[in-house]
C-alpha cells in the first residue's frame, strides 16, 4: 500500500485516493460521499471544497476519518512472505481470489478459490466465520473492499494480501507468472 501523504484542506481527491486507496469506501460509509453519481466528486476537487458542499463537514474531521480508516486497512493486510509461511503450515487459511475468472485461470495461488456468486453464498451459509480467510486480487486494493464486505457479514478473521498476487509472485513465489491488465478503449 502506498505510504500516506499528509492531508490538508487543499489536498485533491486524486491525491487522497492515490495515497489512501480505501478513502472512497470510508467516505461513503460515514458521509455518503463518492459511492454513486449523486454523491460523486471530481479528482481535482480539494478536501475543503468537498466538505463545503457536503453539509459543511469539518475538514479536520474528514481528514481524521480517512487516516483512521487507512490504519484499519493496513491492519487488515498480510505481507506475501507471512502468507507463504501460513500456507506452508499445519492449518493454512482459506484463500479467496477476488479477480476475474480469466485472471484466476491464467495464474492463481495454489489452493485458492475463485470468488463467484455461488462461493460467496456458500461462504455466508456454510463456512466457519471464525476461521482465517485471506482475500487477494491483482494489486491489493480491491480486496480491501471484499474484506469489508465479509467482515460486514460476520467474518472475524479476514485479511487481504498486501500487494495482491503481483507482490506474492515477486516476493514469495516467483514460479507464479506476473502480468499486467490492459484495458480496451
SSE order and pairing:
Blueprint: H1 13-19, H2 23-31, H3 47-52, H4 59-76, E1 77-78, H5 80-87, E2 94-97, H6 101-106, E3 113-114, H7 117-126, E4 133-136, H8 142-152, E5 158-161, H9 164-171
Parallel strand pairs: 1-5, 2-3, 2-4, 4-5
Short account of what is shown:
The chain is an alpha/beta fold.
Notes on the structure:
With 185 residues, the protein is of the alpha/beta class. The protein has 2 domains: 13-76, no CATH class; 79-171, 3-Layer(aba) Sandwich (Oxidized Rhodanese, domain 1). It is 45% helix and 9% strand. It has 9 helices and 5 strands. The chain has a 5-stranded parallel sheet with strand order 1-5-4-2-3. The two termini are 27 Å apart. 29% of the residues are buried. The mean pLDDT is 93.
If you consult CATH, what is the topology of the largest domain?
Oxidized Rhodanese, domain 1
Structural class category: alpha/beta
CATH homologous superfamily of the largest domain? Rhodanese-like domain
Radius of gyration: 18 Å
- Approximate helicity band: 40-55%
The SSE string, one letter per element, is HHHHEHEHEHEHEH
The oligomeric status of these chains comes to single chain
Overall pLDDT level: 93
Going across the major beta sheet, what is the strand order?
1-5-4-2-3
Number of helices: 9
- Which band does the percent of strand residues land in? 5-15%
Distance between the termini: 27 Å
CATH class of the largest domain: Alpha Beta
Task: Give short descriptive properties of this protein.
185 residues, alpha/beta, five-stranded parallel sheet, 45% helix
